[in-house]
Design a protein that fits this description.
Radius of gyration: 23 Å
Strand content: 5-15%
Distance between the termini: 47 Å
Number of strands: 2
Order of helices and strands: HHEEH
Number of domains: 2
Helix content: 55-70%
Shape: elongated
Length: 105
């Protein structure tokens, strides 16, 4: 019997409160995993931010020679609150959602 079936069996005989506690514990476990994944992603993003900050003020048309096979590009990024977007339309949509939430709230 695998774990989900085992939990289902336990819930079948538990009280409503016990089943709710088990469900909330499973949700909490999933949230911990999500937070860990977001932290790893954020760590990588912070590193990228530091690189961009270090290069701030440098020109994309710098005189540094780029070896053949490497293409220099610039990425435009938009931020609304703590969210980052590569597409302006996505950022505008988030801004509308945020504004609507403030007006309704």
């Amino acid at each position: 019997m695998n774990a989900p079936q085992s939990l289902q069996g336990e819930r079948q005989y538990g009280t409503t409160d016990e089943r709710q506690v088990l469900a909330l514990e499973m949700i909490a476990d999933e949230l911990v995993l999500i937070c860990q994944q977001l932290e790893r992603f954020n760590d990588r993003f912070d590193t990228t931010e530091k690189v961009f900050a270090a290069q701030e003020g440098s020109s994309l048309t710098s005189s540094e020679e780029v070896p053949p096979g490497i293409t220099r590009t610039s990425i435009e990024r938009f931020q609304v609150g703590t969210y980052h977007y590569l597409k302006l339309d996505d950022a505008k949509a988030e801004l509308r959602r945020t504004s609507d939430a403030w007006q309704k709230g």
